[in-house]
Amino acid sequence: MAERKATNKYYPPDWTPAKGSINKFRGSHPLRDRARKLHEGILIIRFEMPFNIWCNGCNNHIGQSVRYNAQKSKTGMYYTTPIYKFRMKCHLCDNHFEFQTDPKNLDYAILNGARRQELRWDAKDNEQIVAEDKEVIKKLATDSMFKLEHEVEDKQKAKDVEPAIEQLESLQKRWKDDYSFNRAIRKTFRTKKYELKATKFADRSLLKRSSLPLSLKLIPESKEDSKLAKLMKLESTKCKI
Fold first, then answer.
1. Disulfide-capable partner of 57 in 20, 82, 93, 183 (CB 3.0 to 4.6 Å)?
2. The total number of structural domains that make up the chain
3. Is 0.70 surpassed by the pTM of this model?
4. How many CA atoms lie within 13 A of 44 on its CB side?
C-alpha cells in the first residue's frame, strides 16, 4: 500500500499529458485490484461486521468489527437512499454470507449464510428514549385528536420522570465545580497511596527482622490481635534447677 500512497509516480517516457491520466494511458483503474469486477457493478471493499453472527457453514462465532474483503453491489432503492448488498467468505470455512443495508430500520439484514446473535432489547422495556415512528409522526401532523391524546400522554410521562430529573439537576449542581471535585479525588488518592507505601515498608522491615520470606503477605493488625499478644507470655519448657 505504501507505493500507492507515495507522491512520486513513475511516468513512462512515451507518455504525454495529451494522452490523459497515467491510469488511462496504462489501461488500469485507480482502485487497482479492487475494481476488477467493476464491469459487473461490483466493487471490492473492506467490510466491518456490524454485529455478532454465527456462520451457517462451520457454526463458529464471528464477532462484531471483524473485517472482510466484501463484494459491494447496488440492489435497489429505498426512496432516494440506495440499498447495497455485501458478499464475503468466512475466514474459517468455505461458506459465503451476504448482508444488505436496511435504511428503513437503520440496520443491516442478513440475506443468507449466517444468523445473527440476538443481543437486542426493547428500548421501551429498558426505559430509554424511543424515536417516534414515521407513521406516528405523519398521524400527529394530520390527526388533531391523536395529537391531543399524544400530548396528554407526554405530559403524564414528564410528570412521572420529574423527581428523577430534579435529582439529576441537584447532582449536576453538586458536581458543577469540576476542578474542586477532581482536586478532592486526587488528594484522597495521594493520601491512600502514601499510606499503602508506608504499610508496605513497615511490613518488609518486619519480615527482614523475623527472617521471613519477603513474598509473605501480612494482614493488617487489629486491636484484638494486639491485645491478645500483650496477654501472652512465652516461657521455656525446661524446668529450672
1. 93
2. 2
3. no
4. 12
Read off the pLDDT of residues 212-221 as tens digits, 9 standing for 90 and up.
888 888 887 7
Question: Which among 40, 36, 101, 39 is positioned nearest to 69, based on CA atoms?
Answer: 36
Q: Can you name the residues that pair with 164 across neighbouring β-strands? A: none
Q: What is the pLDDT of residues 7-66, one digit of tens each?
A: 567 778 888 888 777 777 777 777 777 888 888 888 899 999 999 999 999 999 999 999
Domain carrying residue 75: 41-116
Domain-embedded: residue 112: yes
Q: d(Cα 113, Cα 187) in Å, to the nearest integer? A: 57
Domain boundary among 149, 174, 199: 174
Structural domain contains residue 60: yes
pLDDT in tens, 194-236: 999 998 888 888 888 888 888 888 887 788 888 887 777 666 6
- The CA distance from 118 to 157, in Å, is 30
Which residue's entry shows cell 495521594? Answer: 190
* Domain assignment of residue 56, yes or no: yes
pLDDT tens, 138-194? 787 888 888 888 888 888 888 888 888 888 888 777 767 778 778 888 999 999 999
Same domain, 51 and 79: yes
Q: Are residues 112 and 167 in the same domain?
A: no
CA 172 to chain centre: 26
Q: Which three cell numbers mark 105?
A: 430500520
User: And the C-alpha cell for 21?
Assistant: 491520466
Q: Which three cell numbers, joined as nine digits, stand for 102?
A: 436496511
